[in-house]
Amino acid sequence: MTLLYTILALVVLGVFLAVVLFVVARRFHVVEDPRIDQTESLLPGANCGACGFPGCRAMAEALVKEDDISSLFCPVGGADTMKSVAEFLGKAAAEREPEVAVVRCAGSCALRPDGTAVRARLSTYDGARSCAIEASTYSGDTGCSFGCLGQGDCVVVCDFDAIHINPASGLPEVVEANCTSCGKCVKACPKAIIELRRRGPKGRRVFVSCVSRDKGAVTRKACAVGCIGCGKCVKVCEFEAISLENNLAYIDPVKCRLCRKCVSECPQNTIIEVGFPAKKI
Amino acid sequence: MKTFPRGGIHPPSNKLSSGEAILPLSLPASVVVPLSQHIGAPAVAEVAKGDRVVVGQLIGKAGGFVSASVHSPVSGTVTAVEPLANGSGIKTPSVVIAVEGDEWLPSIDRSPELVPECRLEGPEILSLIADAGIVGMGGATFPTQVKLSPPPGKKAEILIINGVECEPYLTSDHRVMLEHPSQVLVGVGLIARALGVEKIFIGIENNKPDAIELLRKVASEMVRVLPSIEIVPLKVRYPQGGEKQLITAITGRYVPSMGLPIDIGCVVQNVGTALAVYEAVQKRKPLIERVVTVTGKGLGQPSNFLARIGTPVSALIEAAGGLPSDAQKVIGGGPMMGRAMSNLDAPVTKGTSGILVLGASEAARCAETACIKCGKCVTVCPMALEPYLLSRLVQKQRWDEAEAGAIFDCIECGSCAFTCPARVPLLDWIRLGKTEVNKIIRSRLSC
After folding, report:
1. A240 and A121, same structural domain?
2. Domain at A270, CATH number
3. CB 3.0–4.6 Å: which of B168, B180, B413, B426 could bond B387 by disulfide?
């Protein structure tokens, strides 16, 4: 009998609670646009926050809610994702040039395999392995107070395995295939060395690989490949794409026509070309 | 014997130079005087390249309420006013003066006689302190006149003078107490008058019995010209010289979280500051020199120097026997709270209490291993924080949780990192977290 009562009591309790749950679920049902779920499934699901929202779900909600979604963009998914989202929602999507993270420091300071170093170490940092801590402690272990510290804060924050420290040079290198231009490394770098730049036609681009705002003489002493602000590139550029501010040249990616005259003009070899076929000798 | 109630450590004291009398250091060929040697707004340069200056002349005017004036420590010609690298290699606006002779402002009384009496009222004393550019000489370099002007509605009841010097190796405060006891006590009396307080304590750790005895003797001799001052011997324990720890050790009161000592009616000043106040008020001498301990086991002659502000650190090390061949690290300040220096041409500033040279074996950092959750850092934290947790939260960038964990109460004493058996650089992370959380709090307040 005891067994029977037990089973009976549980069955009654179960039925009662089921009714309660049913009523509650009906009464307090939240009507949600089903398109939010579907839009979310179209997004990459990286939850990286690059779009400015806390995650893909919040981005999906905004995409469904806003009439004009031209200001919203998912850098990870890129134009393809935005196109499919726009088609699904019947709205006009934003178009943006695909971008990639670019490391603007070429001053390797760990000794290279051939025994040379572009920047000489003047002191040894032995604190916590963090660029943010090193940057807040002092100007850095070389004569250049703007250059890469090489502790790898950018590597730690990357969700896509797209940036690594090259042990030979001690500098971070971007794996372009993996980079989604989410911009996390840009925020993590305390020296503001990493920049998001257009990938460029056929992945070709030209940029100044230095952020030193020191005077030319100071930079030249500290680093063999630092921008000394001589202005030769500005003069040689036919498209007015290069500006010089605080002893530092900057190439505007929109104006640059990839003629590469500045690359051969630069006395410090600071201007770097990426993605061009090897020159015929 | 009194001490603070929780946490703390016992690092080896290594006071190598406590028996060395203060030696005036010869003038360098040129000095670099940073315009920001204090917490707060940098001073504004009052001189330009080519100007002649004499000792004690104003060269940088206080740039705001929380700021301090800067005076020329030498006589000579200004050769440059430009940003120059400090001990951390970071460029700060500085005045460079080429030394010519040693000509002082005529208003400064250079006689060694003690001037015990003072007829000035509180506000006059305060303005003399501000004019002399005095800052906290213990190392925090907070402008003294600001600390001595309680905000409206708050009243100071107790003045505590910090003669603890709990940092290992450093002996500058100890020597100041031994060699200028009457000047320090007169300075204490002046600070007390400026604040209008009756209760005065001087806290000294009992590893300096000579200083305790001497100050007691001098205080009883000068009882007619000075208010009553109680010398409190304290049990040796780091970080007793921390403002909050010292207040609790002596009065039993606790400074509230995010609060200031004035919230519980206390004001703490260093003995070096008391000496500087005496010189500023009674001798009209601005803060142009300070006592610096130059020490280290490998150094030929660990010493206490009276160095002009702006003297390069390398000159001090040279005078103490030169950099030993195995020198690995030079620290500005003491071994616990000081900062490793990357630039030895950097000048002595108002806050430089010591220069410590460490050899290879002392400077070596052991490799970091995983935290074993032993809780030693929690036991030694004098502020009752959880350093292992806070450092982890900072690494994970969970700022709100770090704030809830009272990361802001951290006094950066370094006891946690000192005691950690896994050699985790706990304080490095917590300090980074404090900067980030500070930014968040500020942005919250501004909107």
Report:
1. yes
2. 3.30.70.20
3. B426
CB contact under 8 A, B88 and A132: no
Shared domain check, A239 and A127? yes
- The phi and psi torsions of B435 (rounded to 5 degrees) equal -60, -45
Above 80 in pLDDT, residue B447?
no
Residues A51-84 pLDDT 10s: 889 889 999 999 998 888 888 888 888 888 888 9
Q: Do A133 and B429 touch (CB under 8 A)?
A: yes
Contact of A269 with chain B, judged by CB distance below 8 Å, is answered with no
* Amino acid at the residue B412: E
- A155 CB near a chain B CB, below 8 Å? no
Please tell me the pTM assigned to this model: 0.87
- ipTM associated with this complex: 0.86
- B191-203: b or e for each residue (b if 16 or more CB lie within 10 Å)? bbbbbebebbbbb
Last residue of a domain, one of A89, A109, A124: A89
- Rounded-to-integer distance, Cα A103 and Cα A170, Å: 12
Nearest CA in chain B to A144: B89
pLDDT tens profile B258-293: 899 999 999 999 999 999 999 999 999 999 999 999
| Candidates A130, A136, A140; nearest CB to B435 | A136
Rounded percentage of chain B residues whose pLDDT exceeds 90: 83
Inter-chain touch A138–B88, beta carbons under 8 Å = yes
Section B366-378 average pLDDT: 93
Report yes or no: A90 and A99 within 8 Å, Cβ to Cβ: no
Question: Which chain A residues are Cβ-neighbours of B365 within 8 angstroms?
Answer: 126
Å between A214 CA and nearest CA of chain B: 11
Q: What angle do CA B366, B368, B371 make, to 5 degrees?
A: 130
Among residues A28, A109, A27, A94, the alpha carbon closest in space to that of A59 is found at A94
- Token pair, residue A63, equals 């995409």
- Interatomic CA distance for residues B146 and B123, integer angstroms: 12
B432 touches chain A (CB under 8 A): yes
Number of domains in chain A: 2
Distance CA A180, CA B307 (A): 56
Boundaries of domain holding A233: 99-274
Fold designation for B122-282 = Rossmann fold (3.40.50)
Q: CA of B329 to nearest chain A CA: how many angstroms apart?
A: 9
Same domain, A197 and A233: yes
- For chain B, the domains span 122-282, 376-446
- Among A89, A108, A123, the domain boundary falls at A89
Same domain, yes or no: A220 and A131: yes
